[in-house]
C-alpha cells in the first residue's frame, strides 16, 4: 500500500466533506424519525453499512483472528457505542439539529475528564479551566429553570458521555486490538440488539424510506473514509477541530428542511463549547503538555479504520 501524500490543505478539505456527509446522515435520520422508531432506523442503517465495511475489513491481509484480546473492554466499548448511537439518533428526531450538536460537542471535554482515571492522563489547570468553561456552555444551551429539560436533551448528553467513554476505551486498547475487531463487534452487536427489538416496533416502509435507510449506511461508510484520508494527509490537531463544522451544516439543513432557527442561547452556548474543545485540542498538540493526548488520539481512533499507525 503506498503512502498517501501529506497535504494539510487537501486533508482539511477531504475531512470537511466527510463531516458534511455525517451531517447529511443526521438530517436524514431526523427526517426518518418522524415516522419510524430509532431502533428500526439503526437496524437497517447498520445492515446496509455492514456489507461494504465487512468487505473492506476482511480485505485486511493481516494474519490474525477476530478474537478480542480484551473481550470485556471490547464488549463495554460496543455497549457504549450502541447507547451513544441510540441516544444520539433519538435526540436528532426530537430536537433541532444545531441544538443536538451543541450538546454532543461536549464529548471532547468529557474525554479529557474520563482520561484521568482510565488512561492516567495528568490534566493541569488550563485544560481543567477549558472543561469547566465548556460545561458552562452546556448550561447556557440547556438554560435549566428557564426552559424545559426534555428527554431529548437528556439523551443527547447521554450520547456525549457514552461516546466519550467509548473513545477513551479505544485509546486504551486500540494499539492491541485489530481494527476489524473494534469495528465489527459494535456493528454486529447493534444489529443483534436492534433485531431483537424490531418485531415490536417495526413499521412497513415504502421503497423511498428503505432507500433513505440504505443511504444512511452508505453515507456513514463514505464519511468515515473521507475522514480517514484527512487524518492520513494532515496532523490530527488540524483535522480534529473540523468536526465542529457539522453545526454549520446542521444550521443550514435545519433552516431549509425543518424550519429550525437556533436561538441566541444555543448559538452562544455552542460557541463556548466549541471554543473550549478547540482549546483542549490545541493544548494537547503542544509538546510537554499532555502525556497521552486523549482527545486528539481518540478523534483519530474514532474516525480511522486502523487505530494503529497505517501500514506503508
Give a quick precis of the structure:
With 312 residues, the protein is mainly α.
Structure description:
By secondary structure, the chain is mostly helical. It has one domain. Helix content is 74%, strand content 0%. The chain is built from 13 helices and no strands. It has helices at residues 8-33, 38-58, 71-94, 97-104, 107-119, 125-142, 151-173, 179-201, 207-233, 236-239, 246-257, 264-285, 294-303. Helix 1 runs parallel beside helix 11 (246-257), helix 3 (71-94) runs antiparallel to helix 7 (151-173) and helix 4 (97-104) packs across helix 7. The chain is globular and about 55 Å long. The model is unreliable at 1-5 and 305-312 (pLDDT under 50).
How would you sum up the global shape? Answer: globular
User: What does the oligomeric state look like here?
Assistant: single chain
Structurally, the number of domains stands at 1
Give average pLDDT, whole number. Answer: 85
Helix and strand sequence:
HHHHHHHHHHHHH
Global Rg:
19 Å
Strand content: under 5%
**Count, helices:** 13
Proportion of helical residues:
over 70%
Which stretches are poorly predicted, pLDDT < 50 over at least 5 residues?
Answer: 1-5, 305-312
Q: How far is it from the N-terminal to the C-terminal residue, by CA?
A: 6 Å
The counted number of beta strands is: 0
What structural class is derived from the secondary structure elements? mainly alpha
Largest sheet: none
Amino acid at each position: 500500500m503506498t503512502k498517501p501524500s501529506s497535504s494539510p490543505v487537501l486533508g482539511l478539505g477531504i475531512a470537511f466533506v466527510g463531516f458534511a456527509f455525517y451531517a447529511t446522515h443526521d438530517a436524514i435520520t431526523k427526517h426518518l424519525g418522524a415516522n419510524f422508531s430509532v431502533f428500526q432506523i439503526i437496524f437497517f442503517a447498520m445492515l446496509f453499512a455492514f456489507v461494504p465495511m465487512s468487505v473492506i475489513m476482511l480485505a485486511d491481509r493481516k494474519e490474525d483472528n477476530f478474537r478480542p484480546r480484551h473481550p470485556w473492554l471490547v464488549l463495554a466499548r460496543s455497549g457504549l457505542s450502541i447507547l451513544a448511537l441510540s441516544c444520539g439518533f433519538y435526540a436528532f428526531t426530537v430536537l433541532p439539529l444545531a441544538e443536538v450538536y451543541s450538546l454532543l460537542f461536549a464529548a471532547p471535554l468529557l474525554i479529557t475528564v474520563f482520561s484521568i482515571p482510565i488512561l492516567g492522563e495528568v490534566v493541569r489547570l488550563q485544560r481543567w479551566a477549558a472543561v469547566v468553561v465548556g460545561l458552562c456552555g452546556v448550561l447556557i444551551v440547556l438554560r435549566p429553570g428557564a426552559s424545559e429539560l426534555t428527554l431529548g436533551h437528556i439523551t443527547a448528553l447521554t450520547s456525549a458521555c457514552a461516546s466519550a467513554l467509548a473513545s477513551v476505551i479505544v485509546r486504551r486498547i486500540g494499539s492491541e486490538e485489530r481494527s476489524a475487531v473494534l469495528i465489527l463487534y459494535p456493528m454486529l452487536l447493534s444489529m443483534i440488539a436492534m433485531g431483537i427489538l424490531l418485531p415490536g416496533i417495526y413499521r412497513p416502509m415504502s421503497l423511498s424510506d428503505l432507500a433513505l435507510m440504505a443511504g444512511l449506511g452508505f453515507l456513514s461508510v463514505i464519511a468515515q473514509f473521507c475522514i480517514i484520508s484527512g487524518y492520513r494527509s494532515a496532523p490530527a490537531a488540524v483535522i480534529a477541530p473540523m468536526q465542529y463544522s457539522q453545526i454549520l451544516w446542521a444550521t443550514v439543513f435545519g433552516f431549509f428542511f425543518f424550519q429550525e432557527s437556533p436561538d441566541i442561547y444555543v448559538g452562544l452556548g455552542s460557541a463556548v463549547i466549541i471554543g473550549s474543545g478547540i482549546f483542549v485540542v490545541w493544548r494537547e498538540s503542544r509538546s510537554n503538555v499532555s502525556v497521552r493526548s486523549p482527545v486528539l488520539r481518540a478523534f483519530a481512533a474514532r474516525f480511522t479504520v486502523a487505530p494503529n499507525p497505517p501500514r506503508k
